[in-house]
Amino acid sequence: MSENNNDTTRRHTRHLHPDQSPWAVRVSDVGSAIGRSEHLDDVFPAPTGIGDDFYGVHPGSDVRVEGDLDSLKDGLILTATVSGTATGRCSRCLTDLENPLTAHVTAFLPFEPPEPSEHDGEEEQDVDLEQEEAQDVYPLLEHGNWADLESLIRDALFDLVPTTPLCKPDCKGLCPLDGVNLNEHPDHHHEKTADPRWQALAGLRQKLEREEGQDRDKNGDGQSDKQ
Ligand SMILES: [Zn+2]
Ligand SMILES: [Zn+2]
Predict the structure, then answer these.
(1) pLDDT in tens, 94-103
(2) Predicted model pTM
């Protein structure tokens, strides 16, 4: 730990990758010897593909990655918190939403891309790659000198975006007849007779009640029958 806090942050100020990726982080120092460790705390633009226009993390909005890089023999381990903000609308009542998203990530960043195994057919190679992906592996670039966090950020936050975003779990939604927000107007309702189908049912019910009433009258109030 350096005596000046700013130094720690500045060490990881992004140097532009040759490809000018805004998600590139220089890791040549921490990767230079086994057992090295470095703190990472930086803000990146959100990549595309985290949710959609209706609800998601808006591309370019701030995503903070805060954690530690630890150097192992074959690569780096990144243990970090990835946080951003999802914006959009409630899928039931269309209210504007703004929700913080926080993911905890442990990823392996190998210095070299996985080499094809020696006794291989191509099929076996595919299986290997699939296993790598399942373990949150993000190969480093440029001989291990750079990490590019674009995919890592996207994968981490994508999992937190609900397919049905809601303003609250029991959102009552909108009145299907006139769009009134039923959360704000819990007493809002329409007379059932407004719908001809209900009118028909109500008519039938009245008829039945009338008949029942007549029966009761015949039997003298219906109380003396039983007993
Ligand atoms: Zn809602
Ligand atoms: Zn209504």
Answers:
(1) 999 999 999 9
(2) 0.68
